[in-house]
Each structure stands twice: as structure tokens, then as C-alpha cells.
Predict the structure.
Amino acid sequence: QVQLVESGGGLVQPGGSLRVSCVASGFTFSNNAMSWYRQAPGKERELVASITSIGSTNYAGSVKGRFTISRDNAKNTVYLEMSNLKPEDTAVYYCKVWIWKDYWGQGTQVTVSS
């Protein structure tokens, strides 16, 4: 079955960097677009970035120029490299794939605080 497992979250100071990863299984990873979402306390889940099967990317305006999404098809892994982090980036970060329905990972907490 489809499984997504995120890792790499943690506590980072404002202006710092962090990379989160999502390992996928149960489907043909290379054939599918992947996305990163985040949900801050009291807010709705929002799209952060997405990457198609051929590597085209799209970003939310709030993270453009600071975050980079990438994928390694040999490792069935999608990454989100985050730099110049701000307190407002604090959230649980989820990866998602759509295969006739949405599949979500369990999320990884990213906290940006001094």
C-alpha cells in the first residue's frame, strides 16, 4: 500500500536552514508528482511546493526563493530544502501524493524560534 514517511524536522533559529525528506513506497514513485504541504497551529493546511514526475516545480509565494523541492527517483525520496527560515514557517510539514485519491505522510514538525 502507499506509504509516505517524513523526517528531518526540528528546531532551528530564524535565518537558519533545514532539509526535510519524504520516503515513498507502494507505488511507482518516478511516475508521480509529489507535493509538500504545511499546517501551522490554528491554520488550514497549505501547499508549499510541488514537483512533477519530470522535475517541474511550483512554489507558494511565501516560500519562493527560500525553499527548494527536489526528488531522487533512485531513492524514492522527495526533499524540501528550506533556507532563511522565519518564525512564520513553523508548522508540521507533510508530503502528499495523489493516486486516484490523496495519500499523506504523518508529518514532521519544523519550529523556527530563537
Notes: The radius of gyration is 13 Å.
